[in-house]
Amino acid sequence: MKIAINARMLNKIPDAGISRFTYEIVKRTISEHPEHIFSLIFDKEFDSSLLFSIDCEAHILNPKTR
């Protein structure tokens, strides 16, 4: 199955709050479900370490939301 995730709050070094929650949920979901293909949707440049699996692809969509 292909799953798209809004990753605009996903940061390489997450702070507390929504950034930390997003990081943990996305990382664990991708790690625990290698049978799926994940598309992370960003609104800006991102660090490649946020692609937690080889079955994970990234897309940058405009306009920026922040």
List the helices and strands and how they pair.
Layout: E1 2-6, H1 18-32, E2 37-42, E3 56-60
Parallel strand pairs: 1-2, 2-3
Q: How would you portray this structure in words?
A:
The N and C termini lie far apart (30 Å). This protein has one helix and three strands; from the N terminus they run βαββ. The chain has a three-stranded parallel sheet, with no helix packed on it. With 66 residues, the protein is α/β, with parallel strands linked by helices.
Arithmetic mean pLDDT = 91
> Cα-atom Rg, whole angstroms?
11 Å
Q: Count every helix, treating DSSP H or I runs of 4 or more residues as helices.
A: 1
Content of β-strand: 15-25%
Write down the oligomeric state.
single chain
Residues in helices, as a percent range: 10-25%
Number of strands: 3
The helix/strand series, from N terminus to C terminus, equals EHEE
Instruction: Report how far apart the termini are.
Output: 30 Å
Strand order of the largest sheet: 1-2-3
Main sheet characteristics = 3 strands, parallel
